[in-house]
Amino acid sequence: MKKEMDMCTRPLFGKIILFSLPLMFTGILQLLYNAADIIIVGRFASDASAGAVGSTGSLVNLIINLFIGLSVGACATASRYIGAKQMEKLDRVVHTSVCISFLCGIVIGIIGFFFSEYLLVLMNVPKDSLLPLSTLYLKIFFLGTPFNFLYNFCASLLRAKGNNKTPLLILASTGIVNVALNFIFVYFLHMDVAGVAAATVISQVISAACILVYMMRMDGLCKVTMKRIGIYKDALKDILYIGLPAGIQGCIFSFSNVIIQSSINIFGDYAVTGNAEAANIEGFVYTSMNAVYQACLTFTGQNYGAGKKKNIDVTLFNCLIIVSVIGIVMGVGFYLLGEPLLRLYTDSPEVIAYGIQRMKYICVPYFLCGIMEIFVGSLRGLGKSLTPMIVSIIGVCGIRIIYIFTVFATHQTLPTLYLSYIISWIITAAIHGICLFFIRRKVFSEMDKKDIAIA
After folding, report:
1. What sign does the dihedral 43-48-49-51 (CA atoms) show?
2. How many independent structural domains does the chain possess?
3. Does 1 fall in a domain?
4. In 388-448, where do the E strands start and end?
C-alpha cells in the first residue's frame, strides 16, 4: 500500500480530505481512549474520580503544549525540505526531532511530577473531594511524557511526507491495550484513577517504541538511524523558528483555559464534572477540525518549498470549506445529542445539565475556532509562526483574561463565562485573516524574485 501522498499536484481537494481522514481517526481514537478513562472511573469508581481525571486536562495542556508546539515546527520544516528536495537538511531535522522530543519529555515529566499538587491548588481544584485523586493521576501521567513526546514528534515527521496511516494504525493498536488495561486496573484491581493513569503510560511506551522501530526499519524519507540521533544546530534553529512560537502560543492559550477552568471550579463538583465530560465530547469536534489544520500546514509547507503559489491559495480555500462543514455538522449534531452522549459518562441529572449548558455555548459555534486555526496553519506552512503567536496571545488569551476579570467578575454565571470563547474566536480569526492577506503578498513577491534570479 502506498503510504506517501503527492501534495504538489492538483486537484488538491480530494487529497486534503484523504490526508485529513486518518488524522481525524487518530485524534478521535485518542479522545475515545481519554473518554474511556473518564467513563470507566465514573462507572466503576465514582463521579468524583471522573471529575478528578477530567479536571486535569487544561493543566496538562498548559505544561506540555510548549514542547508539543515544537513538533509543529518539525512537521512544517520537514514538509518544506521535502517539497524543495533538500534531503540532507531533512535528515538533520529528523534526527534532531527524535533527540529533543525525548529530552524535553524527561524535563516536563520531572517538573510535572513534583509540582502537580501545587499547580492544582492554584487552579482551585476542590481540596477535599478532587485534589488527592487529581494529584495522583497527574503524578503517574507525567511519567509517560518522554514517550508521549517521542510518539508525537515521530508521527509529525511521517505526516510531513504524507504518511499518516502508520501513526493511525499504531495508535489504534495501543489504544486497545489502553482500554483493556483501564478495565482490568479499575474494575478488577480497584486501582481507581491510578489504574487509568498507569494504563495511559503503558500504552504511550508501546506507541513510542512501535513508531520509532518502524522509522528505523523503513526506507526513504524520514528514516531514523540510531547513530545519527543528536542535536544539529541548523536543524534545531529551523525547528525552533516555527515550533517555539507555536509552543508559546499553545502554552499561553492553555493558560487562558486554566483561568477559565479555575473559574468553573468555583461552581462546585457537579459543574466541574459536567464541564469535564462535555469538554471531552467537544474534543471530538476540535480534533476533527484540527486534522484539517494539520493538512493545511503540511500541504502549504510542501507547496511553499516547491514554489507553487497557486496550490497554496487552493489549499487555503479548500481547507476553509472543509473545516466549516465539519465544525457546523459535528458541533450542532453533538449538542442535539448531548443528553444521551453525557449519559455514557454519568447518570447524575445535575452533571448532565451542566454538561449540556456548556455544549450549547461551545459546541454549536465551534466552527469559528476551526476557521481561526486554518489561517494559522497557512501562516505556519509559509514559515511564519511569530505573527500567529502574537495575534493569538492578544486575540484569544488577552481577550479571555480581560473578559474574566471584568465582565465575568461582575456577572458570575457559566453562560457569561462561556461567551468569552465565542468573542475571542471571532476577533482572532478576523485578525489572522488580515495578517495572512498581507503576509501572503509579501511571501509570493519574494518567491517571484527568487524565480527571476534563478532564471
Report:
1. positive
2. 1
3. no
4. none
d(CA 277, CA 271) in angstroms, rounded, equals 10
Q: C-alpha distances in angstroms, 334 versus 142, 182, 342, 424?
A: 31, 26, 10, 22
**372: nearest Cα among 354, 395, 338, 352:** 395
| Residue 415, domain member (yes or no) | yes
pLDDT at 214: 96
Q: Is residue 450 part of a domain?
A: yes
Peptide bond into 11 cis (omega under 30): yes
pLDDT digits (tens, 9 = 90+) for 151-198: 989 999 998 888 888 998 998 899 889 889 988 998 888 888 899 899
What are all long-range contacts of 336-342, with beta carbons under 8 Å and residues at least 24 apart?
A: 338/278, 338/281, 338/363, 341/281, 342/274, 342/277, 342/278, 342/281
Q: Which domain holds residue 41?
A: 13-454
Which residue type is seen at 58? S
What residues contact residue 175 under an 8 Å CB cut-off, 6+ apart? Answer: 29, 30, 32, 33, 203
Express each pLDDT in 359-375 by its tens digit: 999 999 999 999 999 99
Q: What is the pLDDT of residues 40-65, one digit of tens each?
A: 887 776 667 777 776 676 667 666 66
Residue 102, in any domain of the structure? yes
Whole-Å CA distances, 84 to 295, 306, 374: 18, 5, 23
Residue 139, pLDDT score:
93
**pLDDT value of position 336:** 95
